[in-house]
Amino acid sequence: MKIRDKSIPMISYKQLAAVIIVCRIFTLMTHVPLIRQGYSAAVQISAEAVSALIQAVMLIPAVVFYSKDRHDPAERAFSLGKVWGYAVSAVYLIYFTVTAAMNGGIFTDFLRSRFSESVTGAAAAVLLVIVCFYCAYCGIEGIARASAAVLILFIIMTIVMVTGGIDKMQTENLRTDFSGSLFLNALTEDMSRCTETALLCFAGKYTADRFRCGAYYSVCGKLLCTVFVTFVSLLVLGDYAYMSLYPYLDIGSSAGVRFLQRIDAVYMIVWVLTAVIFISAEIFFSASVLETAFHFRRSTACITVSVIVMLLLLAGIYASAEQVYESMASLPMQLTAVTLIPLIILIAERWGSREKKKA
User: Fold this and answer.
1) Tell me, what's the pLDDT at 288?
2) Within 13 Å, how many C-alpha atoms sit on residue 205's CB side?
3) Phi then psi for 129, rounded to 5 degrees?
4) Cβ(110)–Cβ(28) under 8 Å?
5) How large is the greatest C-alpha to C-alpha distance in the chain, in angstroms?
């Protein structure tokens, strides 16, 4: 029987799915999947489908994790020993803070390149982290409610964009040529961009019930959003999509509707909100790791993580540390955080229980 700790704030499995989907929407709106690499529609969509299937398999250990109790990987690692606990905590803390800094770097680069080159990276980074710190401090419940609202806003914006650009859609823009080598490249690239999947390893602690449904709903929702955005971008923009830095934004710029001449303003609002939610979630779960490892208070943990993220973000802007961050948050690291660590802990727990029975 699952015992719920009433002192821990809880969200529903639907809210969990909304949080993860919105996190994926942030990278989706910034980097329309694989289009700039010149892959055909057949290669992209098939790679996205297989990527979702692999992610579903990767999540099996996390689903098993939360099938009996609500202890996250760090807590269960400490039950095996302090060395285990600190090692696992360090891996997740590094992964979450580095990916948060990467997303903050994407945010500042996007602002400067698309909207205003006069925006200083430091000012944007500091303001972003302050806002995300406050959201993380408010807790997962607030992040979940905001995610549901942003997801609805994204759907409405997408419908308006598609309606405004429907006269420009041409089926001839969808290339169907397929290459096995390009498919493998597209598959690894798509999976490496799904850094939000690792958040599920800690989100189960804060999910009231049916964590498995929330986890797999999020995978299906991410797949639907990714395929739809890819499909629409290629239909509307055609070959221009392969040259554009931000294809989905260009659809909004060209889609004029009666009540809104330029919908890219709405795009910007939604994109900023998704960035805040994603980074806030990463700060929140990083703070959760610190609470477990060092028994920090929530406020102290959030402040500590926010300072770390800000320093990493500033180092990425002024010391060109982006490549280092990309290697630290690469696909092998994601596989380690999402699958390998929970699987090792499960095996160690099973082995320990057998040894106790023998004794």
Assistant:
1) 95
2) 17
3) -65, -35
4) no
5) 76
Q: Please, are residues 234 and 174 in contact by the beta-carbon 8 Å criterion?
A: yes
Nearest Cα neighbor of 231 from 212, 254, 248, 208 is 248
- What's the one-letter identity of residue 174? L
The whole-model pTM stands at 0.91
**Model confidence pLDDT, tens digit, residues 89-139:** 999 999 999 999 999 988 887 777 766 665 667 888 888 999 999 999 999
Q: How far apart are CA 172 and CA 144, in angstroms?
A: 40
- Contact of 175 with 258, CB cutoff 8 Å: no
Q: How would you write 174-230 as a 3-class SS string?
A: CCCCCCHHHHHHHHHHHHHCCHHHHHHHHHHHHECCCHHHHHHHHHHHHHHHHHHHH
Instruction: Tell me how far apart the alpha carbons of residues 111 and 210 are, in angstroms, rounded to a whole number.
Output: 38
Q: Which two tokens stand for residue 174?
A: 């969808």
